[in-house]
Automatic annotation (TrEMBL):
This is histidine kinase. The modification 4-aspartylphosphate is found at D618. The chain crosses the membrane at residues 15-36, 266-285. Keywords: Coiled coil, Membrane, Phosphoprotein, Transmembrane, Transmembrane helix, Two-component regulatory system. It holds the Pfam family HisKA. The keyword Transmembrane helix applies. SUPFAM superfamilies: ATPase domain of HSP90 chaperone/DNA topoisomerase II/histidine kinase (SSF55874), CheY-like (SSF52172), Homodimeric domain of signal transducing histidine kinase (SSF47384).
Length: 684
C-alpha cells in the first residue's frame, strides 16, 4: 500500500514540475517579446518625435522671421525714401497686420522716445503719445537703436494691456536717427494653427529670461527624460543680439512611451495562456492516471470557470462604459443647450419685432423639448431600474400639446404633409397637477414619429378632455398615412434600442428609444398606449392619461422679479468664455457684477486675496477641476456659498460635488427662475 501511494505522489510531482517548466518557458517568451516590442516602439516614437519636432521648429522659426522681416521691410522703405514713404504708414501697417497674425500693433517712436503713431488705434489709445523715457526699457531701446540693429525684447507686459514681444527697427536717413518702427508681437495664433495638427504632442517655448510665452497641449517637460524631448534654441533675429528662445517639443503624456492597453492585454493574455497550457499539460498527464469520469468533470469545471470569468469581465466593462457614456453625453449635449437656452432668455428682455418674438419662442420651446428628451435618454438607467420619479406641478395639457404641434408644424409643411387638428373644438381646457416634462415627452415622441415616418398624405392630431370626479381624463390620438407596421413585427415595437426594419434605420435615423420610453412613461403615469397599424397605409397611436384637476384654473403666467443683490461679492469660475458671459449677463439683472476666473488656480488666487459671498464653480476645467478647487477652499476655511454649475448631471457627479463641499449643484442649462430661486434660498 505504501509503495502504491509513493508512486502516485511521485507522478504528481513530476507532472507538476513539467507543467511549471512549460509555463515558465512560454511566459518568459511572452515577456521577452513584450519587452522587445516596447523597445522598438519606443525607438520609433522617439524618431518620430525628432522628425516632427524638427519640422515644427522650422515652421515656428519661419513664422517669427516672417513677422519681423515684414516690419524691417516697412522700415527699409521709409529709409530708402528719406522719410517720404511715412505718409503711407497707416495703409501699409494695416496691410502688414492683416498679413501677419502675430503682429498685434505697429507704432512709431520718434528720436525723443515718444510714441507718435500706433495702429490699430482704439485698443491701444492709452499708449499714444506715451514717453518711453520713463519706461525701464528706454536705455536698451536707445542703445540698440544707435547701433542700427533690430532689437526684440523679452516677453513683457504692455502699457495698454496684455503681454507681447516688442520689436524695434531703427530708422536712419539724412545721417540722423529718426526713431524706430516698433511692433508688439504675439505669435500664439499662428503657432496654434500649426500646433493643432499635432494633437498627440505638446510644445513649450521660453524667451531668453525663461519666461513661458507659448505652450500647447499642457506640456510637462519635468516628467520626461532629456532624450525624450526635442529641444532646440530658436533665434528670433538673425543678428542674435537679443539672445535665443528655448523650443521644446514632447509627447502630451508619458503614456505615449508606455505600452498600450492592447499590448498589456496581449501580455496578460499570453501569460494567462502560458499558465493555462501548463495547467492543461498537468491535467492531461494526471488524466492518464485517473479514470475517464474525473477527466470529464474537470474539463466541465474549467469551461464553466472560464465562461464565468468572461461574463464577469463583460458585465464590468459594460457597466463602466455605460457610466462613462452617460457622463460624457450629459456634459457634451447639455453644454450647447445651456448656451442656446440662456441666450434666448437674455433676448426676451430685448425689444424685438413680433415675428422675431415668435421665432424666439419657437427656439425656446424646441430647445426645452430637446432638453427634456435628452434628460430622459441620459436617465434611461433610472427608467430601467424603476427609479424614475414623477414630479407634481401645475400645467395645462392642451396648451402644452399646442406648443409642441407648433414646433413640428413647419417640418410637416416642408414635406407637403397636411396637418389636421381638432383644437378649435376644445373649449375651456383644464389646468391639472402632474408631471409636465413626462407629458411633454409623450406628446413629442408620438408627433415626432408621425412626422418622421410620413412622406405624403396627412397627420391628424385629436385631443379630448373628460372630467371625472375631480380628475381629468385626456385622450390624445395621432394618426398618420406613413409606412405602417407589419403585424408580425408589432411585438417588437416597444422594445428599447430596436427599429423594425434595417432599411428604415438607414433612412430614418433614431436611437430606437422613443416608443419604448413613451410606453414606459405612460404606464408610470397610470395611463395606456394603444396602436393600430397597417403596412403601407399608416398608424394610429392612442394615449389615455388621467390627472387631478387643479384648484386654480386661471391662466398660467410665469413672472420674474429681480432683486437688488449688488452687495454680494461674487466669483464665476468657468473655462468656457461663452458660459461666463451668459452667467454674468443673467446675474446683472440682480445688479450683481461678478469677478471671473478661467481656471482653478486663478480662482484660488482670487479667493486668497478677496472674500467672496458666492462662488459659481464649473466642474470640468483644465488643470484643477471644480471638485479639487472646492476641497482646497474648504480646507482654507472659506465660508462662501459655493454652487456647482455644470452640464454633467449624472448622480455620481452631483454626489461628488456635495461631498467636496458645494452647498448646491446647479445643472446646465439652468432657467433664470431656478437660478434666482436658489439665490433667494441662500440670500433671502
Amino acid at each position: 500500500m505504501r509503495k502504491i501511494k509513493f508512486s502516485k505522489y511521485s507522478h504528481e510531482y513530476k507532472f507538476g514540475l513539467l507543467s511549471l517548466l512549460i509555463f515558465l518557458i512560454l511566459s518568459t517568451l511572452c515577456v521577452l517579446t513584450y519587452y522587445w516590442t516596447l523597445q522598438d516602439q519606443k525607438e520609433d516614437k522617439l524618431k518620430q518625435l525628432e522628425v516632427l519636432g524638427s519640422l515644427t521648429y522650422r515652421d515656428f522659426e519661419k513664422i517669427v522671421h516672417h513677422n519681423i522681416n515684414s516690419l524691417e521691410d516697412l522700415a527699409g522703405r521709409i529709409m530708402e525714401s528719406n522719410g517720404a514713404f511715412a505718409k503711407y504708414l497707416q495703409s501699409d501697417t494695416e496691410r502688414i497686420i492683416r498679413q501677419n497674425q502675430g503682429i498685434k500693433f505697429i507704432e512709431f517712436i520718434n528720436e525723443s522716445g515718444i510714441i507718435t503713431f500706433i495702429n490699430p488705434l482704439e485698443p491701444n489709445r492709452k499708449a499714444l503719445n506715451y514717453d518711453i523715457k520713463s519706461h525701464f526699457r528706454y536705455s536698451d531701446w536707445i542703445a540698440v537703436s544707435r547701433d542700427t540693429l533690430t532689437n526684440i525684447t523679452p516677453w513683457i507686459t504692455l502699457t495698454q494691456s496684455g503681454k507681447a514681444f516688442l520689436v524695434d527697427v531703427p530708422i536712419y536717413y539724412d545721417e540722423k536717427f529718426k526713431g524706430t518702427i516698433s511692433a508688439g508681437m504675439d505669435f500664439k495664433p499662428e503657432f496654434d494653427n500649426l500646433s493643432s495638427k499635432q494633437n498627440l504632442y505638446s510644445i513649450l517655448i521660453k524667451d531668453e529670461k525663461g519666461n513661458i510665452f507659448y505652450s500647447y497641449n499642457n506640456p510637462s517637460p519635468e516628467i520626461f527624460e532629456s532624450a525624450q524631448i526635442f529641444s532646440k534654441t530658436l533665434s528670433p533675429l538673425s543678428n542674435n543680439i537679443s539672445g535665443s528662445w528655448k523650443f521644446e517639443f514632447m509627447f502630451d503624456s508619458k503614456d505615449e512611451l508606455k505600452a498600450t492597453s492592447l499590448q498589456n492585454k496581449i501580455l496578460a493574455l499570453g501569460i494567462f495562456l502560458s499558465f493555462t497550457i501548463g495547467l492543461l499539460a498537468y491535467f492531461f498527464l494526471m488524466a492518464k492516471q485517473q479514470y475517464i469520469r474525473y477527466k470529464l468533470i474537470n474539463r466541465k469545471l474549467n469551461t464553466l470557470n472560464e465562461d464565468l470569468r468572461k461574463e464577469r469581465i463583460r458585465a464590468e466593462d459594460a457597466s463602466r462604459a455605460k457610466t462613462q457614456f452617460l457622463s460624457n453625453m450629459s456634459h457634451e449635449i447639455r453644454t450647447p443647450l445651456s448656451a442656446i437656452l440662456s441666450i434666448s432668455e437674455i433676448l426676451e428682455g430685448k425689444e424685438l419685432s413680433s415675428s422675431e418674438k415668435e421665432f424666439l419662442k419657437l427656439m425656446q420651446n424646441s430647445s426645452k423639448t430637446l432638453l427634456n428628451l435628452v434628460n430622459n435618454i441620459l436617465h434611461i438607467d433610472k427608467i430601467e431600474a424603476g427609479k424614475m420619479e414623477l414630479s407634481r406641478e401645475l400645467f395645462n395639457p392642451f396648451l402644452t400639446l399646442k406648443k409642441i404641434v407648433e414646433i413640428y408644424a413647419p417640418t410637416a409643411t416642408m414635406k407637403g404633409i397636411e396637418l389636421i387638428t381638432n383644437f378649435d373644438s376644445v373649449k375651456n381646457p383644464k389646468n391639472v397637477m402632474g408631471d409636465l416634462s413626462r407629458t411633454e415627452q409623450i406628446f413629442t415622441n408620438l408627433i415626432n414619429n408621425a412626422t418622421k415616418f410620413t412622406e405624403k398624405g396627412k397627420i391628424e392630431i385629436l385631443y379630448e378632455e373628460i372630467s371625472l370626479e375631480g380628475k381629468l381624463k385626456l385622450i390624445f390620438i395621432v394618426t398618420d398615412t406613413g409606412i405602417g407596421i407589419e403585424p408580425s413585427k408589432m411585438p417588437q415595437l416597444f422594445e428599447r434600442f430596436t427599429q423594425l426594419d434595417f432599411g428604415i434605420t438607414k433612412k430614418h435615423q433614431g436611437s430606437g428609444l422613443g416608443l419604448a420610453i413613451t410606453k414606459t412613461l405612460t404606464e408610470m403615469m397610470g395611463g395606456t398606449l394603444e396602436v393600430k397599424s397597417k403596412l403601407g397605409e399608416g398608424s394610429t397611436f392612442t394615449v389615455s392619461l388621467q390627472f387631478p384637476i387643479a384648484e386654480h384654473q386661471e391662466e398660467i403666467i410665469k413672472t420674474r422679479s429681480y432683486r437688488d443683490l449688488s452687495y454680494l461679492k461674487v466669483l464665476v469660475v468657468d473655462d468656457n468664455v461663452l458660459n461666463q458671459k451668459i452667467l454674468v449677463k443673467i446675474l446683472s439683472k440682480n445688479n450683481i457684477e461678478p469677478d471671473v476666473s478661467k481656471d482653478g488656480d486663478d480662482a484660488l488666487l482670487k479667493c486668497a486675496s478677496k472674500h467672496y459671498d458666492l462662488i459659481f464653480m464649473d466642474v470640468h476645467m483644465p488643470g484643477k477641476d471644480g471638485f479639487e478647487v472646492v476641497k482646497h477652499l474648504r480646507k482654507m476655511d472659506n465660508t462662501a456659498v459655493i454652487l456647482g454649475f455644470s452640464a454633467d448631471v449624472t448622480k455620481e457627479a452631483i454626489e461628488r460635488g456635495i461631498k467636496a463641499g458645494m452647498n448646491d449643484y446647479l445643472t446646465k442649462p439652468i432657467e433664470q427662475e431656478a437660478l434666482f430661486a436658489t439665490l433667494n434660498k441662500y440670500f433671502s
